[in-house]
Amino acid sequence: MLTTTTKTALSTIAALCLAASVQAADLGQPEGETILTISGEITTTNAGATATFDQAMLEAMDTVTYETETIWTEGPQTFTGVLLSDLMELVGATGDSLAATAINDYAVKIPATDWVDGGPIIAYLQNGNPMSVRDKGPLWVIYPYDDNPDYQSEVTYSRSIWQLDRITVEK
């Protein structure tokens, strides 16, 4: 016979396991090559303690397109991707900042105050085309520089990391 305490403990464990599996199921699993891994202070995961995304998973989210000039390109460019704020909401980010890291381990800090509507996107298309590693891809943090003069600063430019492949949400 199981005691009431044991039954309660088993029920709690079962509920936690179910919640974890539902959480992972809601996010889905990458079917292609993982191009972005998010870890740290997040509540929604699909690979252990991380949330992993392939190109198709990002493309399935609501997209945003910015036409803007950058200090790294010639003339106006069109960038399409997902709002950083939407991505942080999807993974249940609870931190104060994130460490965004590139393929070559270059890293920048992006404060939670930048995770806003009309803020940066994680771009996966430039002028309608996927970005290769040689062309600053496959992911590039892009702010709407032309739409907001506050984004035309060295601080913001320094946060515009390209070849992004990892985000760690930090307290």
UniProtKB/TrEMBL annotation:
Identify the InterPro entries for this entry: OxRdtase_Mopterin-bd_sf (IPR036374)
Per its UniProt record, what Gene3D superfamilies does this chain match? Oxidoreductase, molybdopterin-binding domain
Signal peptide region? 1-24
Q: Which UniProt keywords apply?
A: Signal
> In its UniProt entry, what is this protein called?
Oxidoreductase molybdopterin-binding domain-containing protein
Organism, by scientific name, is Pseudooceanicola nitratireducens
